[in-house]
Amino acid sequence: MADTTWRKSSYSGGANSDCVEVALTGANTLIRDSKNPSGPRLNLPAPAWRGLLAKTIAPAIST
To answer: What positions does the domain DUF397 occupy (predicted)?
Structure first.
């Protein structure tokens, strides 16, 4: 996965802030801790990733 492109939200703080990074790899989304890029990762199938976004982003948008 050396060629995987990782991204983090533009709303996350500077280089020393706690945040997660995501990478889209076809049918799955990888999630990792930005402070520990070689550490454990979550590997979510696309439906699970969409569900997570729906539960976390939709409430913030509606307020």
So the answer is: 5-54
